[in-house]
Amino acid sequence: MAKIHTIITGHGNFASGMRSSVKLLAGVPDNFDFLDFTENMSEEDVSAKLDELNASGEPLLVFADLLGGTPYKCAAKLAVAHPEQDIAVVAGCNLASLLETMFDDYANASEYANALVDATKRAAQVLDLTPDEPEEDTDEDGI
User: Fold this and answer.
1) How high is the pLDDT of residue 143?
2) Is residue 107 included in any domain, yes or no?
3) pLDDT profile of the chain (143 residues), mean per 10
4) How far is CA 140 from the centre of its chain?
5) In what order do the strands lie in the sheet with 32-37?
6) CA–CA distance from 4 to each of 8, 52, 69 (Å)?
7) In the chain, how many domains are there?
8) Which of 88, 93, 131, 133 has a 20 to 30 Å separation from 51 between CA atoms?
9) Alpha-carbon gap, residue 87 to 58, rounded angstroms
10) First-last CA distance in the chain
11) Is the whole-model pTM more than 0.90?
12) Where are the beta strands (DSSP E) in the chain?
């Protein structure tokens, strides 16, 4: 099994922000690329850059910030345009899921994508500030 080429993309500076965090926490793997969709870019610019980053034709996972957003749609079009290539696209995952999964080996891009989604589900939590119930006093003699 080999490492899957991974492209992180999203609106504004999402990708460069993720790169900064990954670099700080774990170091950036050689198989990672980052593509920001900034206000001066068009959908065609994003598609062209994804094509450029995918030039090798190796298995690919595209990690997009929002389902249905321009980076996601461009990645989906890339996957449809290359049915012979192992390409998976995920959206809505987070830094915790990326850190948990990025150093593992996967048989294919789909396996990697599913690991990211599963890790995201586990990482999403609500802070519970409900106080613990005090333990009942089981001393029957009252002292």
Assistant:
1) 60
2) yes
3) 88 98 96 97 98 96 98 98 97 96 95 97 94 75 62
4) 56
5) 32-37, 5-11, 60-64, 87-91
6) 12, 17, 23
7) 1
8) 93
9) 9
10) 66
11) no
12) 5-11, 32-37, 60-64, 87-91
